Automatic annotation (TrEMBL):
This is Molybdenum ABC transporter substrate-binding protein. Coiled coil: none annotated. It comes from the Bacteria. Pfam families: SBP_bac_11 (PF13531).
Length: 252
């Protein structure tokens, strides 16, 4: 009799636990690849505090926006530049945002710069093997185009892309190409050079801020979010002192 009662209690517990697991809210966070590391760290804290799951969809900023616009599913969006929010304001898919830091582009070269690269002219020098991000996909590609246009105009932009031996899709592709020594120079988001897996392989050359201005990073709340309360809590945490410390740890 006791055994049957125990089995009944255990079965009830398992059923209730399963139902609770099914009811556990799941947030979808669209995050540009460059910011994935700090966002993952913050997500763990929010998941524990609010008993939720956070699914991070990572990729190029434009690709992510196209995905959320098409699916109308998800809660938060963090592109590599606030220009994506401004440009797509007309869609009314973003209803709130918080500023959490800056992104800035720089020239990335092999460790110790064996090719003696000094400035943007390296990208039109046929002696170099460059990789550049597609200007129509990732945020760093869009920024690279702006840098070249500001530096010497459309002719320089076209020549630099024609001279590139690889076209990447996001910041991770660019760093991998340098680390694997397929190329020797690129333009990428500066924060990624500080990460452990990159710092021993890559050195940074600063670009004048008149060509490469700092870009605001903003977490955006999506209009069709089904978990707005938790999503807003994530946004508040990201701009808090603790959230800002996590951003700084990853070079932002």
């Amino acid at each position: 009799m006791f055994k049957q009662f125990f089995i009944l209690i255990l079965t009830t517990f398992i059923i209730n636990s399963t139902l609770m697991a099914k009811q556990k809210p799941t947030l979808i966070f669209y995050c540009g690849i460059t910011m994935v590391k700090p966002i993952k760290q913050m997500a763990k804290i929010i998941e524990e505090k609010y008993n939720c799951n956070i699914k991070i969809s990572q990729g190029g900023s434009k690709d992510l926006y196209d995905s959320l616009k098409y699916s109308k599913k998800g809660d938060l969006y963090l592109p590599g530049s606030d220009s994506y929010r401004i440009k797509n304001k007309k869609d009314s898919l973003i209803i709130d945002s918080v500023f959490i830091g800056y992104n800035q582009a720089a020239i990335f070269v092999e460790k110790n710069n064996p090719s003696k690269i000094k400035d943007l002219e390296a990208f039109v020098n046929s002696m170099n093997s460059s990789i550049l991000c597609n200007p129509n996909s990732g945020s760093i590609g869009k920024m690279t185009k702006k840098i070249f246009l500001a530096y010497k105009g459309e002719e320089f932009f076209n020549e630099a892309y024609d001279n590139a031996i690889e076209i990447g899709t996001d910041s991770r592709n660019l760093n991998r190409s340098l680390i694997e020594k397929r190329t020797n120079v690129t333009i990428n988001w500066k924060a990624t050079a500080t990460w452990d897996e990159n710092s021993k392989h890559i050195d940074v050359i600063e670009i004048d801020e008149k060509y490469a201005p700092k870009k605001r990073l903003e977490i955006n709340l999506l209009s069709f979010s089904k978990n707005k309360e938790i999503a807003k809590a994530f946004m508040e945490f990201a701009k808090s002192k603790q959230g800002q410390q996590i951003m700084k740890e990853y070079g932002f």
